[in-house]
Amino acid sequence: MNTNDTLRGVDSNVQILKNAFLTFALLSVAAFFAACGEPGPSAGNNESAATVNGKAITMEEVERAVKQQAQGQEGRLSPLELAGARLQILQGLIEQEVMYQKAEKENTVPSDDDVTTEYNKLITQGGKSADQIAREMQEAGVTEAIVRQQVKRKIAIDRLTEKITGKITPPTDSEIEAFYNGNKEAFVKRKGVKLAGIVIDPANTGEGDTTTDEASAVARGNEIIGQLRTGADFASVAREKSEDPSRFQGGDLGYIAEDQLRQMLPAQTVQALMNPQTPIGQIFTAPMQGKYYILKLQERSDRDEALTLESPGVRQQVTESLNNARKQLLAASYQAIAMSEAKVENYLARKVVENPNELSGARPASPNTPAANNAPAPAANANTGAVNTNTAAPAANANAANRPAAPANANAARPAVNTAARPAANTATGNANR
Question: E strands of 99-249, at which residues?
Fold first, then answer.
């Protein structure tokens, strides 16, 4: 029984500080390119949207980020909505520029060699060919120089936050015990299962993809199940053949409580997973959102279990949670001071103030979608190159990327099962066991 899996969410709202200002994921190159709004060579619109201590942020940078955030749907936004999106994105760019300038003053900017190392890691971990990456970059409107600059900024801000919070000392035993005693209800391992998965995607995702339709996906699935039946190691097969970021963890999908399983899977499948007679190692197959999951039952807990400070991993998780909360508070305070000290000129916001009645709230009609005017607008975030580190699906949110979240409290620091890459679909029990 792995308590660490149960406690993955114990500090879900007190993330490691180096991710507080600028979150970066190296598991999804495509999503990174899509979210990138980093300053770069200007192709046309050199008008300044804002300046930070004299350094200009151009409208081109803002418009590029708006386009990527809206994922091609910016034409469905009203002028009023577009203005709001631009202002929100610009605020994220301003905050990032303030912190990068601080990093320059604190000598935490990386060397070109360090940037190259991290850039290559970003590219290779995406599992895509150079041609496919080049196409995605072109579609996203970014160049290698822009991506390298974003990597440089990420490393610089990471190192800055590590330098700032180096003075934080670990909590005392009495603090750890007080936290545990005040939150005992949070330290419960719920009845449920731990799963691993191999994902097969029948969609054609580009060069090098061997499963490009239903037939090839089914054939690949049968091939994998055949390997597992003959004793192949599940984690090794997942790393080699799964078409999902969870492959980097050997297909680990985490621990999932029974009540969550019932929201994801048919009743008979949940019953089979939770049945004490089902052997650990049983293989299940499950279609989900157009993909196929080959699931392995890794662990099962037949009842809720109260954990103590002496349970494996609990004391460590509490220590990390409290330590990260302090770091996060320090980071938020540092950034607040940095923002107050910076000389920021927001020309875009000034235009809105000077011309408040020029923006229409009406969305353009779409000939192909009669209900377009009533459709929800794409969410606009101030993301400037952030990608959610969740292994299931990348998401962009610059408020989390560029602003430290609020300090954790007892409710925020409660454990939650890892559902990052959970399967959800009708399933059929397979026959392969390990």
Answer: 188-189, 192-200
